[in-house]
Write a structure and sequence with these properties.
Blueprint (H helix, E strand, L loop, with lengths): L14 H11 L7 H4 L3 H22 L5 H4 L11 H4 L8 H29 L12 H13 L6
Length: 153
């Protein structure tokens, strides 16, 4: 009979988050971590998780949500009068307005991308490959992501 026991105690980490993190890292194990985390699908998943975590933090800080908490404050979006809010220009200049709106969405995504890549640069992981990292390095990278508010589950 052979008994196999781990030498060290098991690392305490959220299993679901650990699996999600490793799934991204080993999807293409020979690509650099910088190129893995630049992919649109990975960035959109991380951004969705980031927004979810931020919303949960806000709801926990305010206690339980009630009607006044559920109201959205549109004051940050500028002042809109009822007459100007839905005004349509018929002079063919609408294309410029659409470009501005698309640029704003791209700008938000670029800021989030910079945040993710900043975490990789902070730990000097951007040019490293998943197949060459140790489990301790993966743990330190995961902790850097978590400190920045980025989660994988």
């Amino acid at each position: 009979m052979v008994r196999i026991e781990p030498i060290k105690p098991r690392i305490e980490v959220k299993q679901k988050e650990w699996e999600g993190f490793l799934r991204i890292c080993f999807n293409r194990k020979n690509k650099t971590l910088g190129s893995l985390f630049r992919q649109k699908k990975v960035l959109s998943m991380l951004e969705k998780n980031y927004k979810t975590v931020q919303a949960l933090k806000l709801s926990q800080e305010g206690g339980s949500l009630n009607e006044t908490d559920a109201k959205v404050d549109f004051s940050d979006f500028g002042d809109f009068d009822d007459d100007q809010g839905m005004e349509v220009d018929d002079d063919g200049e609408d294309d410029d307005e659409m470009d501005v709106e698309d640029g704003g969405a791209d700008e938000v995504q670029n800021e989030f991308k910079k945040k993710v890549l900043g975490v990789l640069k902070e730990g000097d992981f951007e040019e490293k490959r998943s197949s060459k990292l140790t489990s301790e390095e993966f743990l330190s990278l995961l902790s850097l992501f978590n400190k920045a508010g980025l989660h994988f589950s």
